[in-house]
Write a structure and sequence with these properties.
It contains seven helices and eight strands; from the N terminus they run H-E-E-E-H-E-H-H-E-H-E-E-H-E-H. The protein is an alpha/beta fold and 232 residues long. The chain has a single domain, classed as Rossmann fold. It has an eight-stranded mixed β-sheet with strand order 1-2-4-3-5-6-7-8, with helices on both faces. A hairpin with a 2-residue loop joins strand 1 and strand 2. Helix 2 packs across helix 7 and helix 4 packs across helix 5. It is globular, with a radius of gyration of 16 Å.
Length: 232
């Protein structure tokens, strides 16, 4: 880890995010003169300690983007979900948590001025898209990593935030589902296929490719949002 990475990561701190009848745990990093903030939506039993999402978050931070890695479930909810698998597929429930977390960002002193993007993985991608559909004036970009955007259903037709879907070329079932979801998205959209990668992007350089694609998408679109704000 180089000096720049150490300086960036040193800005991360634990936060508590109040939502309906619960307090969620998160890790917030806000680099100096941040271009915007990316809220991570984990899925399929994952949380803020996901090594894959933390790696992507570090790449985004190095590019000048703030990040919020958070658990969408409380510890009690995680225990229940580990036994039943129910909550990780409750897209409306997860989306509501994302919406409430976004509203928290809008009143937090460090993040209130920043344009917001969502990075979703697995079922978290569907939750991110549903939340983006409900927050058209707040969410400026969405990226899905190996996600299930198809689970967003009718909400796909109401997502106008520029959306990037990233899928591994050997993740054939998820790739087909992403292709179908892409056709339903209403706004700017793009599908990027990482050659030789599977669902978890464990292959050499696969996760690095994901991080670079996400970085470029967020830097461009959150940068555009900043320009629009300054011009208005």
């Amino acid at each position: 880890m180089n000096k720049a990475q150490l300086q960036t990561l040193s800005t991360e701190r634990a936060v508590e995010i109040p939502v309906s009848r619960a307090i969620l745990q998160g890790d917030l990093a806000v680099p100096d003169s941040a271009l915007g903030i990316v809220l991570f939506a984990h899925g399929s039993g994952s949380g803020r300690h996901s090594p894959r999402n933390r790696y992507v978050a570090e790449v985004l931070q190095e590019a000048g983007l703030a990040t919020l890695l958070m658990d969408l479930l409380t510890s009690d909810e995680e225990a229940y979900d580990s036994q039943t698998g129910v909550l990780r597929f409750d897209i409306e429930f997860l989306a509501r948590r994302l919406i409430e977390a976004t509203h928290w960002l809008m009143i937090h002193p460090q993040t209130a001025p920043l344009s917001v993007g969502f990075f979703g993985a697995s079922t978290g991608a569907a939750a991110a898209l549903v939340a983006a559909a409900e927050l058209p004036d707040l969410i400026e970009a969405v990226v899905s990593r190996g996600g299930r955007p198809d689970l967003a259903g009718e909400a796909l037709r109401q997502v106008f935030a520029p959306t990037l879907l990233i899928v591994g070329s050997t993740d054939l079932v998820v790739l087909e589902l992403n292709q179908k979801a892409l056709a339903e998205l209403a706004g700017e959209k793009k599908l990027e296929i990482v050659p030789g990668a599977g669902h978890l992007f464990e292959e050499a350089s696969a996760l690095e490719a994901v991080a670079q694609l996400a970085k470029n998408w967020f830097v461009f679109h959150l940068g555009l949002a900043n320009k629009r704000r300054r011009a208005s």
